[in-house]
Write a structure and sequence with these properties.
The chain is of the alpha/beta class. The protein has 8 helices and 8 strands; from the N terminus they run αβαββαββαββααβαα. The N and C termini lie far apart (about 45 Å).
């Protein structure tokens, strides 16, 4: 097919129940592998790949994928920007890294089930953090809309999983599925090589401080906002 032009391609009308946002940078090979398993195992999800505009020509283009291109942004602002655009079009929004490999057929139908009656957060077993942290997750669009963001904007890249485990746990709307396998191919597990995205020590320190400040100053008020829709 002709090379993708981002400004018209996103008019494609798919609109399933869930939008899964996958930000990516310098990992076109990852996207090929991710897409294959996503298509084989997903039932009610559309896929949105968030690329940087200087890498459009490097990535494979699939007819049934939404593409969002922006200037080279950190993970959190990219997620907040993309999720805000699609909140009114999907009942649920989810996140996965491009280093996730979906192994369970119908994973999305399973994760979304407890969210139909009560807003919350569902997450799979990533074979690395397991129940401890949601390195991939699905939540209700109404939660993001109520908060005004998908991830606290004080953050740049890290502690998003801490944010989701903390608020969903505090409100008792956290749903973990051990038998739903979305394997996280992280270097810490010896499943991939380190690259610039993984090596972000300075960002870790900054985000750790930012998240601690967020917990002290705004976490309780965000909980109250979410409680209004439970």
């Amino acid at each position: 097919m002709d090379r993708f032009h981002p400004f018209w391609y996103n008019d494609v009308n798919m609109k399933k129940e869930i939008l899964i946002i996958v930000p990516t940078r310098n990992r076109s090979k990852n996207i090929k592998e991710f897409y294959k398993l996503f298509k084989e195992n997903s039932e009610i999800s559309d896929l949105c790949i968030g690329m940087d505009d200087d890498e459009v020509e490097d990535y494979p283009i699939f007819d049934d994928v939404i593409y969002e291109t922006n200037s080279n942004m950190k993970l959190v602002p990219k997620l907040n920007l993309i999720s805000a655009k699609y909140l009114d079009q999907y009942k649920y929004i989810g996140f996965m890294g491009d280093d996730v490999r979906i192994k369970t057929k119908g994973w999305d139908s399973i994760l979304v089930e407890p969210l139909k009656n009560k807003a919350g957060m569902s997450y799979p077993n990533d074979l690395l953090q397991g129940e401890n942290l949601p390195t991939a997750f699905v939540t209700n669009s109404s939660v993001i809309k109520k908060l005004g963001y998908m991830v606290p904007p004080e953050l740049k890249h890290f502690f998003m999983d801490n944010f989701y485990i903390d608020w969903s746990g505090a409100l008792d709307v956290r749903y973990y599925f051990e038998d739903v396998i979305l394997e996280h191919m992280h270097p810490a597990a010896g499943k991939s090589e380190e690259d610039a995205t993984y090596r972000s020590a300075d960002t870790v320190h900054d985000d750790r401080h930012a998240y601690r400040e967020y917990i002290k100053k705004r976490f309780k008020s965000d909980l109250k906002k979410i409680m209004e829709i439970l």
